[in-house]
Write a structure and sequence with these properties.
7-stranded parallel beta sheet, 15 strands
Length: about 325
C-alpha cells in the first residue's frame, strides 16, 4: 500500500452504490470499513471490515467513525411512500449523527450521497445547474428529508471538516436491487405516462462510484469545493421510456405498448395515497403524485461543475452499461447462477 493509503468508512457499504464505492476505494489501495444494519458475505470476501449498527444510534456511529481519514455517507432510507418520521430518523437524524461523529473524531473529509429529487418541484427540469432552489413543497418524505440532510452537510463545512454532496440521478447497472428489478417485475402491468418525449439523466453505478472517489480527492486537493453540491450523471439525457424499454429488453421482456395520460396518473396517485392512508393499507401504492410527476416530466442536469471541479466524466456509456446489465441479468436468471 502507498503512503497515501487511507482508512475509510462507508455507511451502507453493502448497498448497490455503497458496494461499488467500496470496490473502487479498495482498488486504489485504501482500507475500507462498512457501517450497516446488515452483514454482507460479499464484503467479507473482499476484505472489508463490517460494523453492525444503526444510524439512529449516535454512539454506534461515533465508534464506527473514530480513527477514519474520510467518511462516505451513502446509507439512507429510499422510497416514494411512508410516514415522514420513518424517513426523518435515518435520513436526517442519521446524517446529523455522522456529521457530529466526524467533528468529535476529527475526521477531515465527508462525502455525502444526496439526490436530484431534493430540488424537484414537479415541473420539467432541463439542463438546470446547482443554482436551482429547493422547492417550497414536497410530495414525498424521501426528497424532503434528503434535502434537510443535504443542507446540514453543506452547513457543516469549515476549516476542520471538508464536506461535499453529490446528486446522482437514477443509478442503475448490474446488482441493482431497486430500479432494474422493479421495472422488470412490473413489465406486464407498466404503462407509459405521457407522450414519451420527456428526457432524463441516468448514471451507471460505476460512474456514480467514481464520482464519489473523485469528490474525496478533490476535497483533499482543493478546499474551495468544500460545502458545495454537484449533479452527476452519464451526461447523456435519454428518453425516460426509451430507458425503461432498454432495461426491459436487457431483462428479456417486451417493450411497453400501453399508455396513461399525466393527468390520469396524477389523479390515480392521489386516489391511491388517500386509500392507503384512510384504510391503513400496508406496502407502497403502485402510483403516487410524486411518481406521476416524475414519470411525466423531463429532469436532466448541467454537470459542468462536476467536470470542472472534480474532474468527473462518465467513463462507461449507456450502451456499454446495458451490455453489462444484460449479461448480469442473463447470468442471474440461469439455473446455475
Amino acid at each position: 500500500m502507498s503512503s497515501s493509503t487511507k482508512n475509510i468508512l462507508v455507511t451502507g457499504g453493502g448497498g448497490f452504490l455503497g458496494k461499488a464505492i467500496v470496490r473502487q476505494l479498495l482498488a486504489k489501495g485504501h482500507r475500507v470499513a462498512s457501517f450497516s444494519r446488515s452483514s454482507y458475505p460479499e464484503l467479507d470476501a473482499i476484505g472489508v471490515t463490517q460494523i453492525a449498527g444503526d444510524l439512529a444510534n449516535a454512539g454506534a456511529v461515533e465508534d464506527a467513525v473514530r480513527g477514519r481519514d474520510a467518511v462516505f455517507h451513502v446509507a439512507a432510507k429510499p422510497g416514494v411512500w411512508g410516514a415522514f418520521d420513518d424517513f426523518f430518523q435515518p435520513n436526517v437524524t442519521g446524517t446529523r449523527h455522522v456529521i457530529a461523529a466526524c467533528r468529535s473524531c476529527r475526521v477531515p473529509t465527508l462525502v455525502y450521497t444526496s439526490s436530484p429529487s431534493v430540488v424537484f418541484d414537479g415541473r420539467d427540469m432541463q439542463g438546470v445547474n446547482e443554482s436551482v432552489p429547493y422547492p417550497a413543497h414536497y410530495h414525498a418524505p424521501y426528497p424532503q428529508t434528503k434535502a434537510i440532510a443535504e443542507q446540514a452537510v453543506m452547513a457543516a463545512a469549515d476549516e476542520n471538516l471538508r464536506t461535499i454532496a453529490l446528486r446522482p440521478h437514477l443509478i442503475w447497472g448490474p446488482e441493482d436491487n431497486h430500479l432494474v428489478p422493479r421495472i422488470i417485475a412490473r413489465a406486464e402491468s407498466l404503462r407509459q405516462v405521457g407522450d414519451g418525449q420527456n428526457r432524463v439523466d441516468t448514471i451507471y453505478v460505476d460512474n456514480a462510484a467514481r464520482a464519489h472517489v473523485l469528490a474525496m480527492e478533490a476535497l483533499e486537493n482543493n478546499p474551495t469545493v468544500s460545502g458545495k453540491v454537484y449533479f452527476i450523471s452519464d451526461d447523456d439525457p435519454i428518453g425516460l421510456w426509451e430507458m425503461v424499454n432498454r432495461i426491459l429488453d436487457a431483462g428479456g421482456k417486451p417493450p411497453l405498448t400501453r399508455t396513461l395520460s399525466p393527468g390520469m396518473a396524477y389523479w390515480l396517485g392521489a386516489l391511491l395515497e388517500w386509500s392507503y392512508r384512510i384504510f391503513g393499507i400496508a406496502g407502497e401504492p403502485r402510483m403516487t403524485r410524486f411518481v406521476a410527476r416524475e414519470l411525466a416530466t423531463s429532469h436532466w442536469f448541467d454537470i459542468s461543475a462536476a467536470k470542472r471541479d472534480l474532474g468527473y466524466s462518465a467513463e462507461i456509456s449507456i450502451d456499454e452499461g446495458m451490455k453489462r446489465l444484460k449479461t448480469w441479468l442473463t447470468k442471474s436468471a440461469s439455473p446455475s447462477a
